[in-house]
Amino acid sequence: MPSLAAMAQTSDAPQDLEIRPGTTRGAEGFFRVGQSTSGMWRLLDPSGRPFFLCAVNEVRGVEGSPHDPAARLRGWGFNALGAGAGAPLHEEGLPWVGTVDFCAAGALIHSNGARLPDVFDPDWPKMAAARAGEACLPWCERRELIGWLTDDQPGWAQPGPSGRPGLLQICLSLEPAFAAYHAAWEFVLALHAGRLETLARAWAQPGIKNKEVVRELTRADRGIATRGYVRDDARWSQEFARRYFALTAAAIRAHDPHHLVLGCRFGVPAGAAVLSQCASPAVDVPWIDLDELAQVPAGPALAGDFTWVDTRFFGAPGARRARGLTAVERMLRRGRTALERAARNPAVVGYAWSHWRDGAGEQPPFARGLVHPDDTEAREHTELLADLNARLPALRGYSP
Q: In what order do the strands lie in the sheet with 145-149?
Protein backbone atom coordinates (compact mmCIF):
# COMPACT_ATOMS: atom_id res chain seq x y z
CA MET A 1 0.00 0.00 0.00
CA PRO A 2 1.34 3.49 -0.78
CA SER A 3 2.12 5.88 2.05
CA LEU A 4 0.21 9.10 2.57
CA ALA A 5 3.16 10.99 1.14
CA ALA A 6 2.92 8.97 -2.07
CA MET A 7 -0.80 9.73 -2.27
CA ALA A 8 -0.31 13.47 -1.90
CA GLN A 9 -0.73 14.36 -5.57
CA THR A 10 -2.52 17.68 -5.84
CA SER A 11 -4.95 18.94 -8.40
CA ASP A 12 -7.06 22.04 -8.90
CA ALA A 13 -9.67 20.07 -10.82
CA PRO A 14 -12.99 19.16 -9.12
CA GLN A 15 -12.89 15.74 -7.51
CA ASP A 16 -15.41 12.96 -8.06
CA LEU A 17 -17.79 12.79 -5.07
CA GLU A 18 -18.86 9.17 -5.60
CA ILE A 19 -17.59 6.93 -2.79
CA ARG A 20 -15.86 3.72 -3.80
CA PRO A 21 -17.67 0.62 -2.46
CA GLY A 22 -15.97 -1.08 0.45
CA THR A 23 -13.97 1.95 1.59
CA THR A 24 -16.45 3.47 4.05
CA ARG A 25 -15.55 3.60 7.74
CA GLY A 26 -18.24 4.50 10.26
CA ALA A 27 -22.01 4.04 10.35
CA GLU A 28 -24.58 5.44 7.96
CA GLY A 29 -26.46 8.35 9.48
CA PHE A 30 -23.40 9.45 11.48
CA PHE A 31 -20.07 11.03 10.55
CA ARG A 32 -18.05 8.58 8.47
CA VAL A 33 -15.25 8.51 5.92
CA GLY A 34 -14.91 6.97 2.50
CA GLN A 35 -12.63 7.13 -0.52
CA SER A 36 -13.98 8.64 -3.73
CA THR A 37 -13.51 6.98 -7.10
CA SER A 38 -10.80 9.56 -7.78
CA GLY A 39 -8.80 8.34 -4.75
CA MET A 40 -9.59 11.26 -2.44
CA TRP A 41 -10.69 10.43 1.08
CA ARG A 42 -13.72 12.36 2.31
CA LEU A 43 -15.26 12.94 5.69
CA LEU A 44 -19.05 12.73 5.25
CA ASP A 45 -21.62 14.32 7.54
CA PRO A 46 -24.66 12.34 8.80
CA SER A 47 -26.55 13.29 5.62
CA GLY A 48 -23.77 11.89 3.45
CA ARG A 49 -22.46 15.28 2.25
CA PRO A 50 -18.71 16.07 2.07
CA PHE A 51 -17.52 17.78 5.24
CA PHE A 52 -13.92 19.02 5.47
CA LEU A 53 -13.36 19.42 9.19
CA CYS A 54 -12.28 22.93 10.26
CA ALA A 55 -12.08 22.82 14.05
CA VAL A 56 -10.34 24.46 17.00
CA ASN A 57 -9.10 22.62 20.08
CA GLU A 58 -9.76 23.51 23.72
CA VAL A 59 -12.59 25.96 23.06
CA ARG A 60 -13.90 27.39 26.31
CA GLY A 61 -16.26 30.19 27.16
CA VAL A 62 -15.39 32.91 29.67
CA GLU A 63 -17.92 33.76 32.36
CA GLY A 64 -19.19 37.28 31.88
CA SER A 65 -17.77 37.63 28.38
CA PRO A 66 -20.02 39.20 25.74
CA HIS A 67 -18.56 36.82 23.14
CA ASP A 68 -20.18 33.49 22.30
CA PRO A 69 -17.41 31.00 21.37
CA ALA A 70 -19.64 29.09 18.96
CA ALA A 71 -20.67 32.28 17.16
CA ARG A 72 -17.04 33.35 16.93
CA LEU A 73 -16.05 30.01 15.42
CA ARG A 74 -18.80 30.20 12.81
CA GLY A 75 -17.81 33.77 11.98
CA TRP A 76 -14.25 32.64 11.28
CA GLY A 77 -15.42 29.79 9.06
CA PHE A 78 -14.90 26.93 11.49
CA ASN A 79 -17.47 24.17 11.39
CA ALA A 80 -16.64 22.05 14.45
CA LEU A 81 -15.22 21.87 17.97
CA GLY A 82 -11.93 20.02 18.25
CA ALA A 83 -10.45 18.20 21.23
CA GLY A 84 -11.01 19.45 24.75
CA ALA A 85 -14.02 21.72 24.19
CA GLY A 86 -16.04 22.75 27.23
CA ALA A 87 -19.01 20.40 27.78
CA PRO A 88 -21.66 23.16 27.59
CA LEU A 89 -20.53 23.92 24.03
CA HIS A 90 -21.63 20.43 22.92
CA GLU A 91 -25.17 21.77 22.94
CA GLU A 92 -24.42 24.72 20.63
CA GLY A 93 -25.15 22.84 17.38
CA LEU A 94 -21.56 22.49 16.18
CA PRO A 95 -20.20 19.01 15.47
CA TRP A 96 -17.60 18.04 18.06
CA VAL A 97 -14.87 15.56 18.93
CA GLY A 98 -15.05 13.55 22.16
CA THR A 99 -12.30 12.13 24.36
CA VAL A 100 -12.61 8.89 26.35
CA ASP A 101 -9.54 9.36 28.60
CA PHE A 102 -8.35 5.77 28.90
CA CYS A 103 -5.42 6.99 31.00
CA ALA A 104 -7.98 7.20 33.80
CA ALA A 105 -8.54 3.44 33.62
CA GLY A 106 -6.31 1.31 35.84
CA ALA A 107 -2.65 1.79 36.71
CA LEU A 108 -0.98 4.74 34.98
CA ILE A 109 2.62 4.72 33.77
CA HIS A 110 3.56 8.33 34.46
CA SER A 111 7.31 8.91 34.48
CA ASN A 112 10.07 10.66 32.49
CA GLY A 113 7.72 11.89 29.75
CA ALA A 114 5.63 8.71 29.55
CA ARG A 115 1.92 8.87 30.39
CA LEU A 116 0.11 5.71 29.37
CA PRO A 117 -2.15 3.07 30.89
CA ASP A 118 -0.59 -0.27 31.71
CA VAL A 119 -2.11 -2.16 28.79
CA PHE A 120 -0.25 -5.35 29.81
CA ASP A 121 -2.30 -5.68 32.99
CA PRO A 122 -4.58 -8.72 32.45
CA ASP A 123 -7.44 -6.73 33.99
CA TRP A 124 -6.93 -3.66 31.85
CA PRO A 125 -9.34 -4.66 29.02
CA LYS A 126 -12.15 -4.84 31.61
CA MET A 127 -11.16 -1.48 33.10
CA ALA A 128 -10.95 0.04 29.61
CA ALA A 129 -14.40 -1.30 28.77
CA ALA A 130 -15.81 0.26 31.94
CA ARG A 131 -14.19 3.60 31.13
CA ALA A 132 -15.54 3.51 27.55
CA GLY A 133 -19.00 2.77 28.87
CA GLU A 134 -18.91 5.82 31.14
CA ALA A 135 -17.66 8.13 28.40
CA CYS A 136 -19.35 6.80 25.26
CA LEU A 137 -22.76 5.43 26.16
CA PRO A 138 -24.38 8.81 26.94
CA TRP A 139 -23.42 10.08 23.47
CA CYS A 140 -23.59 7.00 21.27
CA GLU A 141 -26.77 8.15 19.46
CA ARG A 142 -25.75 11.81 19.04
CA ARG A 143 -25.26 12.61 15.36
CA GLU A 144 -23.30 15.80 15.96
CA LEU A 145 -20.50 13.79 17.58
CA ILE A 146 -17.78 13.20 14.97
CA GLY A 147 -15.75 10.55 16.74
CA TRP A 148 -13.71 9.55 19.77
CA LEU A 149 -10.14 10.31 20.73
CA THR A 150 -8.77 7.68 23.08
CA ASP A 151 -6.68 10.12 25.16
CA ASP A 152 -5.70 13.78 25.07
CA GLN A 153 -1.92 14.13 24.92
CA PRO A 154 -0.67 10.92 26.51
CA GLY A 155 3.11 10.51 26.65
CA TRP A 156 4.78 8.18 24.12
CA ALA A 157 8.33 8.80 25.32
CA GLN A 158 10.96 8.42 22.59
CA PRO A 159 14.73 8.14 22.80
CA GLY A 160 16.56 10.82 20.87
CA PRO A 161 18.28 14.20 20.98
CA SER A 162 16.49 15.19 24.20
CA GLY A 163 18.61 12.66 26.08
CA ARG A 164 15.58 11.48 28.05
CA PRO A 165 14.63 7.81 28.47
CA GLY A 166 12.53 6.08 25.83
CA LEU A 167 9.41 4.04 26.53
CA LEU A 168 11.26 0.71 26.79
CA GLN A 169 13.75 2.06 29.34
CA ILE A 170 10.90 3.57 31.35
CA CYS A 171 8.96 0.31 31.41
CA LEU A 172 12.10 -1.63 32.40
CA SER A 173 12.43 0.77 35.35
CA LEU A 174 8.88 0.53 36.71
CA GLU A 175 8.05 -0.99 40.06
CA PRO A 176 7.32 -4.73 39.84
CA ALA A 177 3.66 -4.03 40.65
CA PHE A 178 3.27 -2.92 37.02
CA ALA A 179 2.54 -5.69 34.51
CA ALA A 180 4.41 -3.61 31.91
CA TYR A 181 7.62 -4.00 33.95
CA HIS A 182 7.56 -7.79 33.67
CA ALA A 183 6.38 -7.70 30.06
CA ALA A 184 9.19 -5.32 29.07
CA TRP A 185 11.93 -7.44 30.63
CA GLU A 186 10.50 -10.62 29.12
CA PHE A 187 10.25 -8.90 25.74
CA VAL A 188 13.76 -7.46 25.64
CA LEU A 189 15.55 -10.47 27.07
CA ALA A 190 13.85 -12.67 24.49
CA LEU A 191 15.59 -10.53 21.85
CA HIS A 192 18.99 -11.23 23.41
CA ALA A 193 19.07 -14.96 24.22
CA GLY A 194 17.63 -14.33 27.68
CA ARG A 195 20.95 -12.96 28.95
CA LEU A 196 21.55 -9.54 30.48
CA GLU A 197 25.20 -9.50 29.40
CA THR A 198 24.14 -10.09 25.77
CA LEU A 199 21.70 -7.20 26.05
CA ALA A 200 24.39 -4.94 27.52
CA ARG A 201 26.71 -5.69 24.60
CA ALA A 202 23.97 -5.10 22.03
CA TRP A 203 23.17 -1.75 23.63
CA ALA A 204 26.87 -0.83 24.01
CA GLN A 205 26.21 -0.36 27.73
CA PRO A 206 28.78 -2.53 29.58
CA GLY A 207 27.74 -0.93 32.86
CA ILE A 208 24.41 -2.76 32.85
CA LYS A 209 25.29 -5.57 35.26
CA ASN A 210 21.79 -5.89 36.71
CA LYS A 211 18.27 -4.52 36.30
CA GLU A 212 18.78 -1.89 38.99
CA VAL A 213 21.37 -0.10 36.80
CA VAL A 214 18.68 0.62 34.21
CA ARG A 215 16.36 1.93 36.93
CA GLU A 216 19.09 4.23 38.28
CA LEU A 217 19.68 5.70 34.80
CA THR A 218 15.96 6.38 34.45
CA ARG A 219 15.70 7.97 37.89
CA ALA A 220 18.47 10.34 36.83
CA ASP A 221 16.50 11.06 33.61
CA ARG A 222 19.42 9.77 31.51
CA GLY A 223 18.29 8.02 28.38
CA ILE A 224 20.07 5.22 26.57
CA ALA A 225 20.32 6.24 22.91
CA THR A 226 22.66 3.75 21.28
CA ARG A 227 21.71 2.17 17.97
CA GLY A 228 21.01 -1.20 19.56
CA TYR A 229 18.78 0.27 22.24
CA VAL A 230 16.85 2.48 19.81
CA ARG A 231 16.12 -0.56 17.65
CA ASP A 232 14.70 -2.49 20.62
CA ASP A 233 12.79 0.56 21.86
CA ALA A 234 11.04 0.85 18.48
CA ARG A 235 10.00 -2.81 18.64
CA TRP A 236 8.66 -2.40 22.17
CA SER A 237 6.87 0.86 21.35
CA GLN A 238 5.22 -0.82 18.38
CA GLU A 239 3.99 -3.71 20.53
CA PHE A 240 2.78 -1.32 23.25
CA ALA A 241 0.95 0.78 20.65
CA ARG A 242 -0.57 -2.29 19.01
CA ARG A 243 -2.13 -3.35 22.29
CA TYR A 244 -3.16 0.20 23.22
CA PHE A 245 -4.97 1.01 19.98
CA ALA A 246 -6.51 -2.45 19.54
CA LEU A 247 -7.87 -2.59 23.08
CA THR A 248 -9.11 1.00 23.22
CA ALA A 249 -10.84 0.67 19.84
CA ALA A 250 -12.53 -2.55 20.93
CA ALA A 251 -13.73 -0.90 24.15
CA ILE A 252 -15.15 2.11 22.28
CA ARG A 253 -16.91 0.05 19.61
CA ALA A 254 -18.45 -2.27 22.19
CA HIS A 255 -20.36 0.71 23.61
CA ASP A 256 -20.59 2.96 20.54
CA PRO A 257 -20.57 1.24 17.15
CA HIS A 258 -21.71 4.40 15.35
CA HIS A 259 -18.88 6.90 15.72
CA LEU A 260 -15.39 7.05 14.28
CA VAL A 261 -12.32 6.07 16.30
CA LEU A 262 -9.68 8.79 15.90
CA GLY A 263 -6.73 7.41 17.87
CA CYS A 264 -5.19 9.69 20.47
CA ARG A 265 -4.30 13.35 20.39
CA PHE A 266 -0.53 12.95 20.52
CA GLY A 267 0.37 16.57 21.27
CA VAL A 268 4.02 15.91 20.33
CA PRO A 269 5.48 13.70 17.58
CA ALA A 270 4.97 10.03 18.45
CA GLY A 271 7.39 8.37 16.04
CA ALA A 272 6.98 5.86 13.25
CA ALA A 273 6.74 2.78 15.49
CA VAL A 274 3.68 4.12 17.33
CA LEU A 275 2.07 5.66 14.26
CA SER A 276 2.30 2.37 12.38
CA GLN A 277 -0.29 0.99 14.82
CA CYS A 278 -2.48 4.10 14.88
CA ALA A 279 -4.21 2.90 11.73
CA SER A 280 -6.97 0.70 10.37
CA PRO A 281 -8.53 -1.59 11.50
CA ALA A 282 -8.10 -0.24 15.05
CA VAL A 283 -8.22 3.46 14.14
CA ASP A 284 -10.56 4.85 11.49
CA VAL A 285 -8.96 8.28 11.05
CA PRO A 286 -5.74 9.05 12.96
CA TRP A 287 -5.49 12.50 14.56
CA ILE A 288 -1.87 13.42 13.81
CA ASP A 289 0.60 16.20 13.08
CA LEU A 290 1.03 17.22 9.44
CA ASP A 291 4.75 16.48 9.65
CA GLU A 292 3.98 12.83 10.42
CA LEU A 293 1.69 12.09 7.49
CA ALA A 294 4.38 10.11 5.69
CA GLN A 295 4.75 7.78 8.68
CA VAL A 296 1.10 6.66 8.71
CA PRO A 297 -0.15 3.72 6.64
CA ALA A 298 -2.31 4.68 3.67
CA GLY A 299 -5.78 5.92 4.54
CA PRO A 300 -7.56 9.05 5.77
CA ALA A 301 -6.03 11.34 8.39
CA LEU A 302 -6.87 14.48 10.36
CA ALA A 303 -4.28 17.22 10.95
CA GLY A 304 -5.29 17.42 14.57
CA ASP A 305 -3.02 20.11 16.07
CA PHE A 306 -2.19 22.54 13.30
CA THR A 307 -0.64 25.92 14.00
CA TRP A 308 1.76 28.08 12.05
CA VAL A 309 3.22 29.49 15.28
CA ASP A 310 6.18 27.17 14.98
CA THR A 311 9.85 27.59 14.09
CA ARG A 312 9.33 25.43 11.00
CA PHE A 313 7.24 28.31 9.61
CA PHE A 314 8.92 31.47 10.92
CA GLY A 315 12.45 30.02 11.02
CA ALA A 316 14.80 29.08 13.82
CA PRO A 317 17.52 31.57 14.86
CA GLY A 318 20.26 31.62 12.26
CA ALA A 319 18.17 29.87 9.60
CA ARG A 320 18.18 31.16 6.04
CA ARG A 321 15.33 33.63 5.64
CA ALA A 322 13.33 34.91 2.70
CA ARG A 323 14.66 38.32 1.72
CA GLY A 324 12.53 41.31 2.68
CA LEU A 325 10.05 39.42 4.88
CA THR A 326 9.58 39.82 8.61
CA ALA A 327 9.34 36.78 10.86
CA VAL A 328 5.56 37.26 11.08
CA GLU A 329 5.20 37.51 7.30
CA ARG A 330 7.26 34.35 6.82
CA MET A 331 5.20 32.52 9.41
CA LEU A 332 1.86 33.45 7.86
CA ARG A 333 2.93 32.82 4.29
CA ARG A 334 4.47 29.42 5.02
CA GLY A 335 1.61 28.43 7.31
CA ARG A 336 -1.01 29.34 4.71
CA THR A 337 0.86 27.33 2.10
CA ALA A 338 1.08 24.30 4.42
CA LEU A 339 -2.64 24.40 5.17
CA GLU A 340 -3.56 24.74 1.50
CA ARG A 341 -1.34 21.77 0.64
CA ALA A 342 -2.99 19.76 3.39
CA ALA A 343 -6.42 20.57 1.97
CA ARG A 344 -5.33 19.28 -1.43
CA ASN A 345 -3.81 16.11 0.02
CA PRO A 346 -6.18 13.23 -0.90
CA ALA A 347 -5.64 11.63 2.52
CA VAL A 348 -6.40 14.66 4.72
CA VAL A 349 -10.07 15.03 5.67
CA GLY A 350 -9.77 18.03 7.96
CA TYR A 351 -7.70 20.01 10.44
CA ALA A 352 -7.96 21.42 13.94
CA TRP A 353 -6.19 24.60 15.02
CA SER A 354 -4.13 23.69 18.08
CA HIS A 355 -5.31 26.22 20.69
CA TRP A 356 -8.33 28.42 21.35
CA ARG A 357 -6.57 30.69 23.86
CA ASP A 358 -2.96 31.87 24.14
CA GLY A 359 -0.75 29.76 26.35
CA ALA A 360 0.98 31.02 29.48
CA GLY A 361 3.86 33.32 28.64
CA GLU A 362 3.03 33.53 24.92
CA GLN A 363 3.17 36.93 23.29
CA PRO A 364 1.29 37.95 20.13
CA PRO A 365 1.82 37.60 17.24
CA PHE A 366 3.82 34.50 18.27
CA ALA A 367 1.02 33.10 20.42
CA ARG A 368 -1.00 30.10 19.34
CA GLY A 369 -4.46 31.11 20.47
CA LEU A 370 -7.23 32.61 18.37
CA VAL A 371 -8.32 34.47 21.49
CA HIS A 372 -6.04 36.44 23.79
CA PRO A 373 -6.20 36.17 27.62
CA ASP A 374 -8.34 39.34 27.73
CA ASP A 375 -10.84 37.58 25.39
CA THR A 376 -10.01 39.80 22.41
CA GLU A 377 -9.64 38.30 18.96
CA ALA A 378 -6.20 37.37 17.63
CA ARG A 379 -6.75 39.00 14.23
CA GLU A 380 -3.25 38.09 13.07
CA HIS A 381 -4.58 34.52 12.87
CA THR A 382 -8.35 34.73 12.56
CA GLU A 383 -8.53 36.93 9.46
CA LEU A 384 -6.25 34.65 7.44
CA LEU A 385 -7.92 31.50 8.77
CA ALA A 386 -11.37 32.83 7.89
CA ASP A 387 -10.23 33.41 4.31
CA LEU A 388 -8.65 29.95 4.10
CA ASN A 389 -11.67 28.21 5.62
CA ALA A 390 -13.94 29.85 3.05
CA ARG A 391 -11.80 28.45 0.22
CA LEU A 392 -11.27 24.94 1.57
CA PRO A 393 -14.38 23.36 -0.02
CA ALA A 394 -13.22 24.57 -3.44
CA LEU A 395 -9.76 23.14 -2.77
CA ARG A 396 -11.47 19.82 -2.00
CA GLY A 397 -13.59 19.94 -5.14
CA TYR A 398 -17.11 20.41 -3.76
CA SER A 399 -19.58 23.16 -2.92
CA PRO A 400 -20.26 23.92 0.78
A: 260-261, 145-149, 96-99, 80-81, 53-56, 348-353, 301-306, 287-288
Percent of the chain with pLDDT over 70: 94
Q: What is the distance of C-alpha 225 from the center of its chain?
A: 25
Q: Which residue has the higher pLDDT, 321 or 63?
A: 63
Omega prior to 365 cis, within 30 of 0: yes
Per the DSSP assignment, residues forming a β-bridge with 41 are 35
CB 283 within 8 A of CB 155: no
Alpha helices in 19-115 (DSSP H): 69-75
In degrees and rounded to multiples of 5, residue 90 shows phi and psi of -65, -15
The mean per-residue pLDDT over the stretch 103-114 comes to: 96
Q: How far apart are CA 104 and CA 132, in angstroms?
A: 10
d(CA 357, CA 378): 9
pLDDT of residue 324: 63
Rounded CA separation 290/312 (Å): 12
Q: How far, in Å, CA of 42 to CA of 60, rounded?
A: 28
CA 49/CA 67 separation, integer angstroms = 30
Domains of the chain, with CATH numbers?
4-158+237-396 (3.20.20.80)
Mean pLDDT rounded to a whole number for the chain: 91
DSSP per-residue string spanning 210-243: SHHHHHHHHHTT-----HHHHHHHHHHHHHHHHH
